[in-house]
Amino acid sequence: MRLIPSSFLSILAVLPSLCQANTVTGGLVGVVLAWNVASNAAIAAASTTSDETVAKATNTNDNDNEDEDDNDENDEEYESKIQQALQYFKSKSSQLLKQALQEGGGSIGETSILEIAPNGDIVSSTDVEEELRQTEFALTAMKQELQRLQNRLKLDEYENDDDDEDDDEEEEEEEEEDSDDDEDGDDYDYGDNFPPENYRLSPEDIDAQLQNDPELKAILDSITDPKVRNEKYGDIKSEADMAVKMDIDKWHTFKYWEMHAYFSCARQFAASRPVYDTDMWNEVRQLWHDFANEDKLDNFKPGMKERTYQFSTDSFDPPMEPFHAGEKGRGLRAARDIAKGELVFKATNNTVIFTHGHTWRKFLFHIYERHGEDGPFDGGTTCDVLLWSWVQRIEKDGPLVIVADFDNGSLLNEGRDEPGWDKPNVRCGKEGDEMCMMEYYATDDIKTGEEILCDYRGFALLGAWRNMGV
Ligand SMILES: *[C@@H]1O[C@H](CO)[C@@H](O)[C@H](O)[C@H]1NC(C)=O
Ligand SMILES: *[C@@H]1O[C@H](CO)[C@@H](O)[C@H](O)[C@H]1NC(C)=O
């Protein structure tokens, strides 16, 4: 028996997809780190944990820029975050940790190769390659466990907003529920194990349905490049396949991409979506006001903060106008010459905040089912709002929130200072600002008619939907 060498840590640390450092700090849910970091706990367990590394991890600043191939410092930060995740896991439930590891280790042979030693270390009895293989299984298993836990915690937090006292009891229940889930299928996975009787349409039916959609046919026919056409059809088809397998009774568990599929957003965006005029914006705002009033009545206790609210009472007339920006769809262009450093856009009373992922999810369904549960459904507006929403912090070290603009500001397209992208010409925050305070400034002189582009990664946490529970 020996410990897994900690060199695995550095192998993993350079895998870009595992290296997003979008973690949350503070709060019960905050301790549950982004799954891609935390799921490495199985490996991290191999090196001994100390209070010091945990303390360090807690003090580490978030690195929202997702620099992937950085240096030792990042490795260290990464490692300490893993340690923190592991500590959390161990403190919450050694059973959970064990289950994840057994699931991983048990998949190959009869005997579990990864084991938990009495001191809490994870040990292995096999050679290095075998360990790496095992660890990959363990990672997957751990990921699933963590996702469930995180999901539960989000729902619990949502339901008991101001009462954190009996967390431990709740945690116990979670474990039991989790084992139940395993028996009757995975609650959060609409994959292959979904009971066949719930399939409403066969894949052939879906094909037939899509072939009989004259609007879609026209869209596809207008694409001259067969590769692009096939890709587009493939995206729409795979979303349709996923959507029929989804159980609407479990709508409250739908994740970002599940909702994207359920509302047929790939299909919606295949068509050219309209540039909203004043009436259309007013309609969306009214839908939001109706929803916000309804949500206030729902499970709302005195003293509780609203779960969705307008960012400010300000108004702002930006020097930009919407247009159809070719392949990018809708976009914004300068309505006049704009000087470098000028304020071009800021959050206003049209900017709304959602403090809980589930409230945002409810709002999407509120739009989708605006004409009632039997339809007709408004997938177009729903997908627009889904697309226009992002996750960020609006206070330093504050919680993550979901933000959306119900005005032309939503049409701002993304630019990056990278090959294959158009260069950005506005950024959130002035040069030197540490935080994006929802004000956008020109980084260059911009001529009338030029498209306005912003690198979202400067403020939006593109991988943080999971941290919001969606
Ligand atoms: C937003 O764009 C519409 C055109 O689609 C325009 O009529 C309206 O004035 C614009 N609103 C603002 C605040 O710029
Ligand atoms: C913000 O104020 C403008 C002007 O009063 C109004 O037309 C708009 O509907 C408001 N936005 C929201 C979301 O209520």
Q: What's the level 1 CATH class of the largest domain? A: Mainly Beta
Side-by-side strand order of the widest sheet: 4-8-10-9
Annotated CATH homologous superfamily of the largest domain: SET domain
Shape: globular
Strand content: 5-15%
Number of strands: 14
Largest sheet: 4 strands, antiparallel
Instruction: Note the total helix count.
Output: 17
The parts where pLDDT drops under 50 for at least 5 residues are 1-70, 103-111, 161-199
* Average pLDDT number: 72
Descriptive account of the structure:
The structure is a single chain. The chain is an alpha+beta fold and 470 residues long. The chain has 3 domains: 6-126; 190-270, no CATH class; 278-468, Beta-clip-like. 43% of the residues lie in helices and 11% in strands. The protein has helices at residues 7-13, 28-31, 35-38, 41-44, 51-59, 72-92, 94-106, 128-159, 167-183, 203-211, 214-221, 226-245, 256-262, 265-270, 278-297, 357-368, 379-388; strands spanning 2-3, 114-116, 122-124, 308-310, 320-324, 330-334, 343-346, 351-354, 390-393, 400-405, 413-414, 426-428, 439-442, 453-454. The strands form 5 sheets. The chain has a 4-stranded antiparallel sheet. Strands 1-3-2 form a 3-stranded antiparallel sheet. A 3-stranded antiparallel sheet has the order 7-13-12, with no helix packed on it. The longest helix is centred in the N-terminal third of the chain and has 32 residues, at 128-159. The model is unreliable at 1-70, 103-111 and 161-199 (pLDDT under 50). Bound molecules: 2-acetamido-2-deoxy-beta-D-glucopyranose (NAG) (2 copies). Residues 275, 277-278, 317, 322, 407-408 line the site of one 2-acetamido-2-deoxy-beta-D-glucopyranose. One 2-acetamido-2-deoxy-beta-D-glucopyranose binds at residues 285, 310, 315, 349-350, 406. Residues 48-78, 152-201 are annotated as: Disordered. Residues 48-60 have a biased composition (Polar residues). Residues 306-457 form the SET domain.
